User: Fold this.
Amino acid sequence: MTILFNKFSKQNTAIILLSLSLIFPSGITLAKNYQKAAKIKVKCHVELVGGKDMIHFGIIKNERKAKYAQWLEGKKIATGFSKHKQQVYKVIECTKLADEFINPISVKVDEDTAR
Assistant:
């Protein structure tokens, strides 16, 4: 009877541990998914159709940062000086919100932008 109970107990333990490992993902997997899904705040110096320069603020996924400037060109964005959305003609520079622009014109436009 004791031998049968020990064998049954070991099998149950193995099944329970296997089930738990399949149900709960590892900490490494969770960290990778969090890093991939993490969002960042960015600011972009854009020129609108008509020649007006402004800073556009956005919150995007971290993996989209490299292609955000290209994606933003041609899009219509809300501006503070018009009720209607304005179309982006070109993106001069994009950076994280806490970072500084490299282009001196972008720095000046950023300083003049109200937050």
